[in-house]
Amino acid sequence: MSVSIVNKNNFEQVKNSDKTVLLDFYADWCGPCRAVSPLVDQIAEENPQYLVGKINVDNDPELAQAFGVFSIPTLVVMKNGKIVNQSAGARPKAQILAMLEG
């Protein structure tokens, strides 16, 4: 499955997904975000059991604020509409998968 672009218009639908959700808060100008982005894309392609979305903090500052995002990239894992894991900073693929599985 591919990565969804998440914004305030479709966030409720993503949040209420039956699947575990991985959200990648990023900005186009952010170097570490560009390092994490292909890993998030790979996870989306290889793991159809997860719903993977990206939120551009410049385009949707309200969502970033709602999640308390102060540095990017920030990765958030949600289950049943609730945050179960969150981390700031670039992470290797194995750590991102561990967040999802934890």
CATH homologous superfamily annotation: Glutaredoxin
User: Would you report the number of β strands?
Assistant: 5
Characterize the main sheet. Answer: 5 strands, mixed
Task: Work out the radius of gyration.
Answer: 12 Å
Taking the alpha carbons of the first and last residues, their distance comes to 21 Å
Mean pLDDT: 96
Number of domains: 1
What overall geometry do the principal axes of the alpha carbons give? globular
Report on the structure:
The protein is built from four helices and five strands, in the order βαβαβαββα. It has 102 residues and is of the alpha/beta class. The protein has a single domain (4-101), classed as Glutaredoxin, CATH 3.40.30. Strands 1-3-2-4-5 form a five-stranded mixed beta sheet. The chain starts with a strand and ends with a helix. The model has no long low-confidence stretch (mean pLDDT 96).
